[in-house]
Write a structure and sequence with these properties.
Blueprint lengths: L1 E4 L2 H12 L10 H14 L1 H12 L12 H10 L2 H19 L6 E4 L5 E8 L2 E5 L8 H14 L3 E6 L9 H10 L3 E4 L2 H10 L9 E3 L4 H10 L4 E2 L7 E6 L5 H12 L6 E6 L2 H17 L3 H11 E5 L3 H11 L3 E5 L3 H5 L7 E4 L5 H6 L25 E8 L2 H17 L3 H8 L6
Parallel strand pairs: 1-11, 4-5, 4-7, 5-6, 7-8, 9-10, 9-12, 10-11, 12-13
Antiparallel strand pairs: 2-3, 3-14
Helix pairs in contact: 2-3, 2-8, 2-9, 3-8, 4-7, 5-6, 5-7, 6-7, 8-9, 10-11, 16-17
């Protein structure tokens, strides 16, 4: 990992380097994705099955594209029974956390007869995209489906790419069943996103699409945004560890590598006030990397986006952390709770040496679908609100409108909208 003294210039270079990983910088793939989306929109199943044959080497039709109950039952048989129990315990934690996010509709009435309120209703249909192949993550299935279920979405569908034999990863199927998916379809890539956005003969159009995926999936979500809602256009995973001299270097190194192993574009950053810790962490990451199964990916990730930044004060370290606005932020300082109060921008914050990032990925309950590439400055983790709509309610009596009609008419006149003014005025002709 590169060890750098944190200065204004080094921080600027780091931020520019990290932004290169954004899906917004992969314009060379946009035409390909746009063509896939256009074909699926226009040709429906015909294009969907053609792309599935081309990219997944799997021939499907309207009779085989839907995962059957028998296939789900078979998936349960293939999985370790203890792993199934763990997934159920994780699902219970995720459900309990997200149930606390539910809000109620409300109505506010006044004596003059005016009524204002907000009605909260769930989306009718939600679509969850789940990667397949080597990137099969049952945890992401739970994290995407359960908030929608808690919100009360009427129908939750899931798409995930099949292998060449038309099979789906067993862990993915079992997680979807535990979480409560209504229907699962064998479809992947940009073509699956387009199918959910516009609907085909086999796959229904949804109101919102969530879930992770490769660059083609990310760009497809970007392309269909507006026809449907999406969660975000997520970039590669990232972790930032904020530490002082009290931190355990083995713990810090292990946590940095937990994200570096995701892919070669993942970023792992340590910001510390301790030169001694920085050196020890650098040595320990090199040692761990030799022992871990995904060492090739880890080494490439650290080479590309692995940084150890040494600062002269914790205030400088916190300022840098807020500017980076990392997806995952671990605070390993003498008083992590005090440090946390100064953090403004992070997707998820992990406090103390026994709250490592994988706890959030798999089990604690808060959602692990988090804003990346600095978007934690203005985006939130996936949550129940993402699957709810808020409708404003307005009802005025004649007496209530009489008190304010001249104000509204004046506002409309000043905007040059005389029909707006007239809509109010006609109600009080002759008082």
């Amino acid at each position: 990992m590169r060890m750098i003294e944190l200065t204004k210039e080094s921080k600027k270079n780091l931020l520019e380097d990290l932004l290169k990983r954004s899906p917004n910088n992969y314009g060379e793939y946009e035409d390909t994705v746009a063509d896939i989306v256009k074909q699926v929109k226009e040709e429906g199943d015909k294009a969907l099955f053609a792309f599935t044959s081309k990219f997944d080497r799997c021939d499907l039709n309207k009779d085989t594209v839907t995962v059957t109950r028998a296939e789900i039952d078979e998936a349960y048989e293939k999985l370790d029974k203890e792993f199934v129990k763990v997934m159920k315990r994780s699902a219970a934690n995720i459900r309990a956390f997200h149930e606390k996010q539910l809000r109620n509709s409300w109505i506010d009435t006044k004596a003059d007869g005016s009524i204002l309120g907000q009605r909260i209703t769930a989306l009718e249909k939600a679509g969850v995209y789940v990667p397949g192949g080597k990137a099969a993550y049952p945890s992401s299935v739970l994290m995407n489906i359960i908030p929608a279920k808690v919100a009360g979405v009427e129908k939750i569908i899931m798409t995930t790419p099949p292998d060449s034999e038309g099979k789906i990863n067993p862990g993915t199927l079992v997680a979807a069943d535990i979480a409560g998916a209504d229907v699962i379809y064998k479809a992947g890539g940009a073509q699956a996103v387009a199918a959910m956005a516009f609907g085909t003969e086999s796959i229904p159009k949804v109101d919102k699409i969530t879930g992770p995926g490769n660059i083609f999936v990310a760009l497809a979500k970007k392309a269909v945004y507006g026809y449907v809602s999406i969660d975000s256009i997520a970039g590669p995973s990232e972790i930032l560890v904020l530490a002082d001299e009290t931190a355990n270097p083995r713990f810090v190194a292990a946590d940095l590598l937990s994200q570096a192993e995701h892919d070669e574009l993942a970023s792992a950053i340590l910001i510390t006030t301790s030169s001694k810790l920085a050196k020890e962490v650098s040595e320990q990451t090199a040692q761990f990397a030799k022992e871990l199964s995904r060492s090739d990916i880890i080494n490439k990730s650290l080479e590309n986006y692995g940084y150890i930044l040494v600062t002269s004060s914790m205030e400088e370290a916190i300022e840098a952390a807020n500017e980076i606005a990392s997806e995952h932020l671990e605070i390993l300082t003498q008083n992590p709770y005090e440090t946390m109060t100064k953090i403004k921008n992070a997707g998820a914050v992990f406090l103390g040496e026994y709250s490592s990032e994988p706890l959030g990925d798999y089990f604690a309950g808060p959602n692990h679908v988090l804003p990346t590439n600095g978007t934690a400055r203005f985006f939130s983790p996936l949550n129940v609100d993402d699957f709810l709509k808020k409708t404003s309610i307005i009802s005025y009596s004649r007496d209530a409108l009489l008190k304010v009609h001249e104000d509204i008419e004046l506002f409309a006149r000043n905007e040059g909208l005389t029909a707006h003014e007239n809509s109010i005025k006609v109600r009080f002709d002759g008082k």
